[in-house]
Amino acid sequence: MAPALSRVKREQLRKRRNNLLRRHNEFWLLYGMKSWLIMESPDGQIFTYHSHPDTPPPSGEDMKTRPKSTVVRTPRYYSSMTSAQPVGKEFPVLCAPVRQYNRWEALGQLLENSLRMFS
Asked: pTM score, two decimals?
């Protein structure tokens, strides 16, 4: 469990959370992008945002069968871009779909090797 947050950190978390939820709403209003967001705070409270409450988020199978590829981001993608300090949890292991072509396999190996350098 994460350590208890000070009053200042709790306020900062509240502001960042509300800003993130507002940004998700702006993506829908400005660009027509549907979004689903679920966040769990260190104390276990869940926050959700659904731009379309009556539309369920796409399943893993649905994301695999869509005509456009699915863009997946993990904390490792942003680790070199942020100055924020993690709260003591390890990054999840990157799990990429199976590659169908040799070029994709080579690219996957290159990405995997570069990710190992950061861990």
From this structure: 0.54
